[in-house]
Amino acid sequence: MSQAGAEPDRLSVLVVDGDRRVRAGLTRLMSAACRGWEVRASAEPATAAALVAEAAPQLAVVNIAEDQHASLDLIRCMSSRGVAVVALCDMSGHGLAAAACGAVTAVTKDSGADALLTAVRDVAERIERVAAEGQSSAMSASTSQLSTSRVIPREIR
Q: N- or C-end of the chain: fewer Cβ atoms within 10 A?
């Protein structure tokens, strides 16, 4: 177990984004910023759902794509299996929809890489805390609240 305030030692992360370049960039970002984490990627929600069943990631970053229904169904599936989901969305309304489906938090795409990494690290710390407390669920009810400060578009803040 890592020390308080440090990143968890080993975390399995799944990045889901249909755009090849964005998916590759997010995967590189997570791998570089969160050393020691196992980062996998998937282009399609159906493939991602299969990876969840096979690899059991603890955390996922899911882009709310043009096919919003498939993305939200994936978030529902992941959260029902104990995966903590960080939703990446175009607008705060999509973040609220993602929260209703079980996402732990949401980050608007215009917030930038630092905001995404902060959200991912916050969720990772919660996962580690829950695991340290010996709870069987990947996320407790107290951590399933949407962090609204991250879903408000920059121009409104």
A: C
Tell me whether residue 94 is in a domain: yes
| Cβ neighbours of 74 (radius 10 Å) | 26
pTM beyond cutoff 0.85: no
Integer Cα distance of 15 and 21 in angstroms: 12
- Look at the chain and report how many structural domains it folds into: 1
* Average pLDDT taken over every residue of the chain: 80
Domain that holds residue 60: 12-150
> Taking Cα atoms as reference points, which of 99, 94, 86, 108 lies closest to residue 152?
108
| Residue 57, φ and ψ in degrees, nearest 5 | -65, 155
Residue 1 lies in a domain: no
Q: What is the CA radius of gyration of the chain?
A: 14
Q: Is the pLDDT of residue 101 over 60?
A: yes
Q: In CATH, what number is assigned to the domain containing residue 62?
A: 3.40.50.2300
Q: Which residues face 89 on adjacent strands?
A: 108
